[in-house]
Protein backbone atom coordinates (compact mmCIF):
# COMPACT_ATOMS: atom_id res chain seq x y z
CA UNK A 1 0.00 0.00 0.00
CA UNK A 2 1.36 3.41 -0.98
CA UNK A 3 1.12 5.95 1.82
CA UNK A 4 0.76 9.62 1.05
CA UNK A 5 1.38 12.43 3.53
CA UNK A 6 -2.21 12.32 4.86
CA UNK A 7 -2.01 8.57 5.50
CA UNK A 8 1.31 9.04 7.32
CA UNK A 9 -0.15 11.88 9.38
CA UNK A 10 -3.18 9.77 10.31
CA UNK A 11 -0.93 6.90 11.37
CA UNK A 12 1.39 9.19 13.30
CA UNK A 13 -1.44 10.82 15.24
CA UNK A 14 -3.16 7.49 15.95
CA UNK A 15 0.06 5.98 17.29
CA UNK A 16 0.18 8.82 19.82
CA UNK A 17 -3.55 8.93 20.60
CA UNK A 18 -5.62 5.94 19.48
CA UNK A 19 -8.74 7.39 21.13
CA UNK A 20 -8.81 10.63 19.16
CA UNK A 21 -12.17 11.39 17.58
CA UNK A 22 -12.44 11.47 13.81
CA UNK A 23 -13.32 15.18 13.97
CA UNK A 24 -10.19 16.00 16.02
CA UNK A 25 -8.06 13.78 13.79
CA UNK A 26 -9.39 15.53 10.68
CA UNK A 27 -8.69 18.94 12.25
CA UNK A 28 -5.13 17.93 13.18
CA UNK A 29 -4.24 16.86 9.65
CA UNK A 30 -6.31 19.47 7.81
CA UNK A 31 -8.74 17.13 6.04
CA UNK A 32 -12.53 17.03 6.00
CA UNK A 33 -13.99 14.55 8.50
CA UNK A 34 -15.48 12.42 5.69
CA UNK A 35 -12.14 12.20 3.81
CA UNK A 36 -10.32 11.45 7.03
CA UNK A 37 -12.75 8.67 7.96
CA UNK A 38 -12.56 7.19 4.46
CA UNK A 39 -8.75 7.10 4.67
CA UNK A 40 -8.84 5.65 8.19
CA UNK A 41 -11.18 2.85 7.12
CA UNK A 42 -8.94 2.09 4.12
CA UNK A 43 -5.89 1.85 6.42
CA UNK A 44 -7.81 -0.51 8.72
CA UNK A 45 -9.14 -2.65 5.85
CA UNK A 46 -5.66 -2.94 4.32
CA UNK A 47 -4.43 -4.50 7.57
CA UNK A 48 -1.92 -1.73 8.20
CA UNK A 49 -3.80 -0.79 11.38
CA UNK A 50 -4.18 -4.06 13.25
CA UNK A 51 -5.94 -2.84 16.39
CA UNK A 52 -6.31 -0.33 19.19
CA UNK A 53 -5.17 -0.95 22.75
CA UNK A 54 -4.93 0.72 26.12
CA UNK A 55 -1.42 0.91 27.58
CA UNK A 56 -1.38 0.15 31.30
CA UNK A 57 1.05 1.19 34.02
CA UNK A 58 2.61 -2.08 35.24
CA UNK A 59 3.88 -0.55 38.50
CA UNK A 60 0.41 0.69 39.44
CA UNK A 61 -0.79 -2.88 38.94
CA UNK A 62 1.92 -4.13 41.32
CA UNK A 63 4.07 -5.57 38.51
CA UNK A 64 7.39 -3.93 39.33
CA UNK A 65 9.91 -6.54 38.16
CA UNK A 66 10.69 -6.93 34.46
CA UNK A 67 13.09 -9.55 33.20
CA UNK A 68 14.56 -10.61 29.89
CA UNK A 69 15.02 -14.36 29.69
CA UNK A 70 17.11 -16.18 27.10
CA UNK A 71 15.88 -19.73 26.55
CA UNK A 72 17.91 -22.53 24.96
CA UNK A 73 16.15 -25.57 23.54
CA UNK A 74 17.40 -29.16 23.44
CA UNK A 75 16.57 -29.71 19.77
CA UNK A 76 15.78 -27.48 16.84
CA UNK A 77 12.82 -29.23 15.31
CA UNK A 78 9.65 -27.54 14.11
CA UNK A 79 7.62 -29.69 16.48
CA UNK A 80 9.74 -28.76 19.53
CA UNK A 81 9.58 -25.06 18.69
CA UNK A 82 5.83 -25.18 17.98
CA UNK A 83 5.17 -26.89 21.32
CA UNK A 84 7.31 -24.36 23.22
CA UNK A 85 5.64 -21.41 21.48
CA UNK A 86 2.18 -22.80 22.19
CA UNK A 87 2.99 -23.29 25.88
CA UNK A 88 4.69 -19.91 26.35
CA UNK A 89 1.75 -18.10 24.70
CA UNK A 90 -0.46 -19.36 27.55
CA UNK A 91 1.56 -17.56 30.25
CA UNK A 92 0.14 -14.05 30.82
CA UNK A 93 3.33 -12.74 32.45
CA UNK A 94 5.13 -13.22 29.12
CA UNK A 95 4.78 -9.91 27.28
CA UNK A 96 6.97 -10.84 24.34
CA UNK A 97 8.54 -13.99 22.94
CA UNK A 98 11.09 -13.66 20.15
CA UNK A 99 12.81 -16.44 18.21
CA UNK A 100 16.35 -15.09 17.90
CA UNK A 101 19.70 -15.71 16.25
CA UNK A 102 23.21 -14.57 17.08
CA UNK A 103 23.04 -15.71 20.70
CA UNK A 104 23.55 -19.02 22.42
CA UNK A 105 19.80 -18.90 23.12
CA UNK A 106 16.90 -19.73 20.82
CA UNK A 107 14.29 -17.42 22.37
CA UNK A 108 14.18 -14.16 24.25
CA UNK A 109 11.24 -13.53 26.55
CA UNK A 110 10.19 -10.28 28.16
CA UNK A 111 8.25 -10.97 31.33
CA UNK A 112 6.73 -8.85 34.07
CA UNK A 113 5.94 -9.98 37.61
CA UNK A 114 5.34 -8.48 41.05
CA UNK A 115 8.63 -9.40 42.69
CA UNK A 116 11.49 -11.89 42.87
CA UNK A 117 9.32 -14.55 44.53
CA UNK A 118 6.83 -14.33 41.67
CA UNK A 119 9.72 -14.48 39.20
CA UNK A 120 11.12 -17.60 40.84
CA UNK A 121 7.70 -19.26 40.70
CA UNK A 122 7.26 -18.32 37.03
CA UNK A 123 10.70 -19.59 36.09
CA UNK A 124 10.89 -22.78 38.13
CA UNK A 125 7.28 -23.93 38.05
CA UNK A 126 6.23 -22.89 34.58
CA UNK A 127 8.91 -21.93 32.08
CA UNK A 128 11.57 -24.55 32.87
CA UNK A 129 8.88 -27.25 32.98
CA UNK A 130 8.12 -26.81 29.29
CA UNK A 131 9.60 -29.84 27.50
CA UNK A 132 12.75 -29.00 25.57
CA UNK A 133 13.91 -26.06 27.69
CA UNK A 134 17.52 -26.82 28.63
CA UNK A 135 19.05 -23.45 29.39
CA UNK A 136 17.83 -20.23 30.95
CA UNK A 137 19.69 -16.96 31.40
CA UNK A 138 17.91 -14.05 33.09
CA UNK A 139 18.64 -10.32 33.06
CA UNK A 140 16.64 -7.85 35.11
CA UNK A 141 15.59 -4.46 33.81
CA UNK A 142 16.84 -1.65 36.01
CA UNK A 143 15.27 1.19 34.03
CA UNK A 144 13.52 1.67 30.71
CA UNK A 145 15.58 4.10 28.70
CA UNK A 146 13.43 4.04 25.56
CA UNK A 147 9.90 2.68 25.80
CA UNK A 148 7.83 3.34 22.72
CA UNK A 149 5.15 1.57 20.79
CA UNK A 150 5.05 3.93 17.80
CA UNK A 151 6.70 2.63 14.64
CA UNK A 152 8.78 4.91 12.41
CA UNK A 153 6.82 5.77 9.28
CA UNK A 154 8.55 5.67 5.87
CA UNK A 155 8.61 8.65 3.61
TrEMBL record:
Keywords: DNA-binding, Transcription, Transcription regulation
Residue intervals of the HTH asnC-type domain: 3-64
InterPro entries, per the entry: ArsR-like_HTH, AsnC-type_HTH_dom, Dimeric_a/b-barrel, Tscrpt_reg_AsnC-like, Tscrpt_reg_AsnC/Lrp_C, Tscrpt_reg_HTH_AsnC-type_CS, WH-like_DNA-bd_sf, WH_DNA-bd_sf
Record carries keyword Cytoplasm: no
Record keyword Glycosyltransferase present: no
Pfam family name, one: AsnC_trans_reg
SMART domains registered for this protein in UniProt: HTH_ASNC
Annotated coiled-coil segments of the chain: none
Domain of life: Bacteria
PANTHER family hit by this protein: LEUCINE-RESPONSIVE REGULATORY PROTEIN, TRANSCRIPTIONAL REGULATOR AZLB
Protein name: Lrp/AsnC family transcriptional regulator
Source species taxonomy: Bacteria, Pseudomonadati, Pseudomonadota, Betaproteobacteria, Rhodocyclales
